[in-house]
Amino acid sequence: MRISHRHKFVYIAIRKTGSESLRDMLDKYSDVFGGGKYMHNYPGHLIARKLLPEFEKNGWVWDDYYRFTVVRHPAARLYSCYKYMLRLGNTPVPPNATSSVVNFYQTCENFRKIGVSFNDAVLNNLLSNFFTRPQVDYIMSDSKESLLNKTVKLENLREELVSVWEHIGLPLEDLDNIPFINASPSLHTWQELLSKEAVKKIENRYAEDFEFLNYK
Q1: pLDDT cut 70: percent of the chain above it
Q2: Does 21 share its domain with 105?
Q3: Model confidence over 3-42: pLDDT tens digits?
Q4: Are the C-beta atoms of residues 68 and 164 closer than 8 Å to each other?
Q5: In b/e form, how buried is each residue of 39-68, taking b as 16+ CB within 10 angstroms?
Q6: Cα 128 to Cα 115: distance, rounded to the nearest angstrom
Q7: What is the span of the domain harbouring residue 31?
């Protein structure tokens, strides 16, 4: 999460949608930070409706800020989660990690030891709920209305960020060198790895994401 009082924007960071890259790009323009080394301020992936009370408490006017996020095809997002858990399962726990972080690293280590395929991980609900919350939950109010002004698709990141950068008055040169932080490379696409049954399961579980975010 990032907030700028100078440029009047709110960025809601959805897990596994390039959020590390976006936060890095926005750091120099931001006044309020969450996640990573700023976890003591706010969680990094705070959902929009949980941020509203903070605006009220601090006297900030929600509608004065341009609110945006980045979204991703639900299956691609799950595949990114799968690859990340495998990678983290072979990584030492960071020093001074909290108990919740230690537990998550242990979960990833156990997941890696199982050696399950992406397809079977989907079919057997083995991917961590830490990552798999529907994207609409980050965006919607309790009454199922969008709290944001713009949802940018990761698949068209640079092209769709142009209108965001123009609206909040940031230099378009930023978009010429978008960093790719925390990416998990792969030799395969999710389409190559999922059975029809697994695809159907994803479509059913994330039906609201597919409809609201206009994915197929």
Answers
A1: 97
A2: no
A3: 999 999 999 999 999 999 999 999 999 999 986 665 556 7
A4: yes
A5: eeebebbbbbeebeeebeeeebeeeebbbb
A6: 15
A7: 1-72+135-183
Assess whether 79 and 67 both reside in one domain: no
Please work out, in degrees rounded to the nearest 5, the angle formed at the alpha carbon of residue 166 by the alpha carbons of 164 and 172.
Answer: 100
Quote the number of domains for the chain: 2
User: Residues 122, 168: one domain?
Assistant: no
* Whether residue 205 is found in the same domain as residue 99: yes
Report the predicted TM-score, pTM, of the whole model to 2 decimal places. Answer: 0.92
- Encoded tokens for 215: 């994915």
Cα separation, 67 vs 46, in Å, equals 13
